Amino acid sequence: MYKMLLSWRYLLTRYIALASIISVTLGVATLIVVNSVMAGFTREMNDRLHGILSDIVFESGLDGFPDAEWHMDQIRAEIGDEIAGMTPVVHVPALIRMMVRGEYHTRQINLIGVDKETYANVSQFGEYLQHPENRRQLSFLLREGGYAPEKADFPVSGWEHRRVRSSLDLSSHRHSIPNAGSESADPTVEDAAVAGAPPADPYSTTGGSSQAMVFDPTQEQHTGIIIGIALCTVRARDEAGKVQDYYLCRPGDDVEVIFPTSGESMKAANAFFTVVDFYESQMSEYDSSFAFVPLESLQDLRGMIDPSTGVSKVSSIQIKLKPGADLNAARDKLRARFPQELYPYRIETWRDMQGPLLAAVRLETTILNILLFLIIAVAGFGILATFFMIVVEKTRDIGILKSLGAPSTGVMSIFLSYGVSLGVVGSGVGMVLGLLFVWNINEIAGLLETVTGQEVFDPTVYYFQQIPVEINPFTIAWVTAGAVLIAVLASVLPAVRAARLHPVEALRYE
Fold first, then answer.
1. Helix ranges (DSSP H) in 440-472
2. Which residues of 36-63 are buried (b: 16+ CB within 10 A; e: fewer)?
3. 498 vs 401, 412, 413, 423, CA distance in Å?
4. Which residues contact 442 (CB under 8 A, 6 or more apart)?
5. Which of 331, 295, 317, 308 is CA-nearest to residue 71?
6. Rounded CA gap, 299 and 68, in Å?
7. CA distance 301 to 96
8. What three-state secondary structure class fits 433?
9. Whole-structure pTM over 0.70, yes or no?
10. Euclidean distance between CA atoms 493 and 351, whole angstroms
11. Over the stretch 31-58, which tens digit does the pLDDT of each residue have?
């Protein structure tokens, strides 16, 4: 009983121990906040990376590989029971040119040809489109109105457009695209109208006016293109300090895309497209580089369709597996079916493809944990110094206890209990403060911005409206347990020294 009483008395009367408690508290709270914010950013990044990438990507080089249907049949034969969706894709580096105030504005993009019927089945692509109708069923035709409220009407925001035409101004040229608002329209007629049919043969005896077949860019749209929101916007603050997107182009505007053709004699080709929607995943790398067009159109423009057989080429096949499926096992099965020595294919999971980025985030989190844990280690050295001072100061008291029959283990347990008390109190208070900070981190950030006048979390940089956080109970447990362990270890040496004091030596000069 005397051991607990003495430990409690030292805890209450030794105000120097308060410094050690505060050090442990700050260290634990900092570790909890940093780990929660890093976990939140990692979760958001993983969600966005996985949102555009399917579970497994089966891809070849820039020229692609022929007969995607045969390859998909082979894939089904290997892992068919685990497949939830599959789609062919063509991707190629390209340049996009937009007319801004009478001058061309050029940016580098990753041009992706997708199948509008199956592409949304292997990724979260549809969820990132701005038009609600495209979220339900992808279309490369201009749709009337109905954009997300935060992007309503896509305001010009100060940028001057070469032509006043948007997705809301379609009534004057809808007649040129038969059944343009319906997905049940005849695809042959629809494609001809969208791409712009050539003038009719003047020697034709079937009749009809050649003038009606001439493509009019002011009345008809080119093949549709969906571009990343960051490609055509500049995010900045207006005079009131509010974050505002300034648009370089809007749905209904035409853009020029320049890309390499396929085959042995590769050359640059160009085509005009009409912007029909925006893509916003809030992953700046994707939003500033991705542009999506119909798969068949890109295959035709790049010369990836054999005119004699009609067999087309694709760059990759994206595969989505059922929940709970083992991605690595499925990848290994496909690699065994298509060995590197026979097939020039790269078969990887989405984590393999983003391995360097994910590894960099993990390394950064690990280094931060090590550095911040040193704060608690510093508190441990403070506890060590404090306890040695107490042992020296209380040498006579220790001698009296021993002379009254207190065993060495009892004297040792006094200081060990004192160390445990410091660790428990410090880590407990630190855990509570850290959790309160995490739960109110956005409000605290707003308060700091008001007080200091400096922005803590700039949405123009991170493209997040709030600081993402994720509380991991396991992380909180090891942080608090580690703090208590450091406090206990710091008290071991002083406790051993106190236990070894001989009562006669301790009372010799008293």
1. 441-452, 459-462
2. bbbbbbbebbeebbebbbbbbbbbbeeb
3. 11, 7, 10, 20
4. 457, 466, 467
5. 317
6. 12
7. 15
8. helix
9. no
10. 47
11. 899 889 888 888 877 777 777 778 899 9
Q: What is the token pair recorded at 110?
A: 């990753």
Burial of 247 by CB count in 10 Å (0-12 exposed, 13-18 middle, 19+ buried)? buried
Per residue in 224-243, pLDDT (tens digit) is 999 988 888 876 666 666 76
Question: Is 143:169 a contact under the CB 8 Å cutoff?
Answer: no
For the chain, what are the domain ranges?
2-44+358-507, 54-173+221-353
Q: How many CB atoms lie within 10 A of CB 254?
A: 18
Q: Which residues contact 163 (CB under 8 A, 6 or more apart)?
A: 218, 253
Packing angle between helix 16-52 and helix 473-500, nearest 10 degrees?
A: 150
C-alpha angle with apex 65: 60 to 66, nearest 5 degrees? 160
| Contact between residue 278 and residue 251 where contact means Cβ atoms under 8 Å apart | yes
- Residues in Cβ contact with 498 at an 8 Å cutoff, skipping those fewer than 6 apart: 391, 394, 398, 411, 412, 414, 415
